[in-house]
Amino acid sequence: MSVELARHYAINLICFSFCINMLCRIICYTDSMKPNQQLYSYPRIGVAVIVTHQQKVLFGKRNPADGGIVWQLPGGWIELGESPEKTARREVAEETGLELNGPRVVGLTSNEFSDQSHSISLYFEAECASPELINNREPGKCEQWFWKYWEEIEGNLYLPLQLLKNTDYRPFLSDKGGIYVSF
User: Fold this and answer.
1) pTM for this model (two decimals)
2) CA distance 113 to 101
3) Which of 85, 127, 139, 180 is the S-S candidate for 169 at Cβ 3.0 to 4.6 Å?
4) DSSP letters spanning 138-178
């Protein structure tokens, strides 16, 4: 499959999923939900950002409810009427206080956490404008942010990050084209 065809396929899939996501948000009524039931009966679309600076990537040390440590990237859900790029910029600013230079799409994963929880992640890579301004703005979700080499982080990864790392994606090479996909 050509790079252009893969990019076209990925963008169409994202747009279709986004439209279904928004339509179902309007129609769904959540009062009848059972405990631990996913709010949506279809995958939600999230954005994760590979924030780079001096050949390193920004990783968050997440504190999951069940204990332990899980490594993650900054990111979150696309909001109604918001473009994926705007989501990437907003989420990085909300979580870290950082601004991005030139975010570009580099990957897509289908994240099946369980038979009741499924999301799709769209990945952006972007250089951070002023790394010295980093500030953990959501300490309840992330213990701390660290600049690390991509290869340094191997174990205890948040599922979407693990799926991206299972592809051939490597930061700082994405200007060569291509979108890395894991389905």
Assistant:
1) 0.77
2) 31
3) 180
4) -TTTEEEEEEE-GGG--SSB-HHHHHHHTSS--TT-GGG--
Domain ranges of the chain: 3-182
Q: CA 94, CA 26: separation in Å to the nearest integer?
A: 25
Mean pLDDT by 10 residues, the chain (183 residues): 63 57 45 50 91 96 77 96 96 97 94 88 94 93 94 91 93 75 83
The count of other CB atoms within 10 Å of the CB of residue 69 is 11
